[in-house]
Amino acid sequence: MTSMRDIKQRIANVSSTEQIIKAMDMIASTKLHKARAQLKGVRPIYRKLKCIVEELGSREGAETHVFYQERQVRNSLYIILTSDRGFSGGYNVNIIAKALEHMDQGKNEKILVVGSKGCEYFKKREKNIIRKITDVADAQMYYGTESIAKWVATLYLSGEVEEVFIAYTHFENVLSYVPYVEKLLPVPIVAIDMADNSDRKYEPDIHTFIDNMIPLYLHMNLFRAFSESHTSEQAARMVSMDAAGKNAEEMIEELTRMYNRKRQTAITQELSEIVGSANILHKGGIDES
Amino acid sequence: MANHQTNSVNENDNKINLTITTPRGVKFVEKADMLIMRCIDGDLGILPGHEPVSAVLGDGILRIFNNGVEKKLAVFGGIVEIEDKTVNLLSTIAQRPEEIDLERAERDRQEAEAAILEESEEHQTRRLQVLLHRSLVRIEVSTHLEEAEYTKDTDEGEND
Predict the structure, then answer these.
(1) Using the beta-carbon criterion (under 8 Å), do B41 and A203 form an inter-chain contact?
(2) What is the pTM of this model?
């Protein structure tokens, strides 16, 4: 049986935890706000670039370009975006599961893992991690993705990998985020109806255009994927902290009730003891006189 | 009255719809009579009704002419998609004159100029030249507002 002191101790514990939870919730919601603004900014340029890149693929002369050409695949690079910190519900588990599922289709994988959570996981699984990136500051995301894009392009051009996939979490709204695995390189060629503008010209020529276009596209694609994942992470953390905060509140209520009941019982017991002993004393007094 | 209306409709019809998109969102939506932009191999001028072209942009000034008013923007890299009357410009950096920190651009320019003289490695000098060129573009765009004495300097830089 727990004593009153134990219960009091527990209430103190839970309420200090609750305060931490609330602080984390607040941080996550501020970060979420910022992340959403950033995501909102990058989505339009990404969509347009994606359209152009996909359309380019169906042009004459593009399919022979190295960024579009399907080569025989020996190694596949996976860029997996996870978080650096926990307390974000199923966020990391979901994206890792999705990536593993994709990798198990007989791929010879090389992994670029972002975030310490994913890093720990894949190390334990003894996967082939060729580069890891942790602790990316929010403000460094833009230039960070630029250098990653360059690194990926060099790796691809040097023939160390023949295809590149990215695993990220798409942010839909605060309560829903979906893990995706997408192919970055070679750019998948989508058959598009060419009737409307088949006479488009490219300055200075199509190959130079692709050479300049793809690095920009890669950068924007990575930056967008990072923003999506970052936003999803903050949203996931906010939601789980909300739930934890509610649980803590409930627990405190329950414990306080328990404590009060105990207190009342103790008082009642004490009172009845006093009354009882007073009665005995009283009786003894009568006997003496 | 009716005539006047059709006229104004026509006027609007015969303009370029320019949209500039950067990683911070759709930044600039405007109508223009003519555009001049810097591509990697020279300047490209666009009038309404241009044939469909996609081009790679270099570091330079985007000049927008509308109703006889000229606006300048510093645009660094990116691509442009032109089709008839719509121009979609996608770039990582597109700055208005008022967004440019002139002091910083000046400082960049001086630093780059000084460093180029000392640096011997080709790879480094190319990087510095890009930096210098960008600072010169910024300076020209931002001084366009007040037409200061820098213009002469920067014109030389532009022709390089």
Answers:
(1) yes
(2) 0.83
